[in-house]
Amino acid sequence: MNQTYAGVKIKRILVSQPKPANDKSPFFDLAKKNNLEIDFRPFIQIQGLSAKEFKLQKVNLLEHSAVIFTSRTAVDHFFRIAEELKITIPEKMKYFCITESTAFYLQKYIVYRKRRIFYGKGKLEDLIDVLSKHKEENFLVPMADTHKQEIPRKLRKFKLNFTKAVFYKTVSSDLSDLANVNYDILVFYSPSGIKSLFQNFPDFKQNEIMIASFGANTAKAVKDAGLRLDIQAPVPKAPSMTMAIENFIQKNL
């Protein structure tokens, strides 16, 4: 960072995510403590593939005996595609979920107590031991068009037979109404958010606007786009985005 921040005034922040469902978000505490105006606006949105688009991948759902779900979104689009293709998922299908909440969410589509369902504590590593005990299964992994390569890499490492298939995609939101709105800090959580910024505003110039990013991939996307990264999380002294912004404000008053 070659920018000098002494005496910088932070009043308005735009967070490129949906507004929190309740008032317990640390962003609200940050706003109150520092007299800030914080707006929330998703820069990206999820769009399901059509049945026609899905069929181009030549993936047969019924050739798989188990499904690995990494999110509720994956659950929704798996069963949506099955319905659109008029496929009845057999009761013997096994479900492996990253979290318990995702496993319970399956109740929206299946009779939970009659199915074989396994879940972890939030990471794929939590499921590896269980997955390894079911190596005879042919796993299907519903994913987005842009996804972390970590999951397929680890499944290959443990020699599991799996197919990853795209069921939904990330598209840029329409942000045209923000063209004349000025913010002091823009907060990003994914490379897709940076992509959306330039798709909506091809001539975007950072100038005095601060850019905050969460995660290594997002930080890389900021720099690759030729932007100045002013605030980064997680770091040892700021494991959360709100802490990173708080530290930045306090340091540069």
State the distance separating the first and last CA atoms.
Answer: 18 Å
**Proportion in helices:** 25-40%
CATH architecture of the domain at 49-170: 3-Layer(aba) Sandwich
Please summarize the sheet with the most strands. 6 strands, mixed
The first-level CATH class name of the domain at 49-170:
Alpha Beta
Order of helices and strands: EHEEHEHEHEHEHEEHEHEH
Number of helices: 9
Total strand segments: 11
- What is the CATH topology of the domain at 49-170? Rossmann fold
Overall pLDDT score: 93
Global structural class: alpha/beta
Question: How large is the radius of gyration?
Answer: 21 Å
Strand content: 15-25%
Overview in brief:
The chain is an alpha/beta fold. It has a domain at 49-170: 3-Layer(aba) Sandwich (Rossmann fold). Helices cover 32% and strands 21% of the residues.
Q: Can you offer a commentary on this structure?
A:
- It contains 9 helices and 11 strands.
- It is α/β, with parallel strands linked by helices and about 250 residues long.
- It has a domain of about 120 residues: Rossmann fold (3-Layer(aba) Sandwich).
- The strands form 2 sheets. The protein has a 6-stranded mixed sheet with strand order 3-8-7-4-5-6, sandwiched between helices. A 5-stranded parallel sheet has the order 2-1-9-10-11, sandwiched between helices.
- Helix 6 links the parallel strand 7 and strand 8.
- The protein is elongated, with a radius of gyration of 21 Å.
- The two termini are about 20 Å apart.
- The mean pLDDT is about 95.
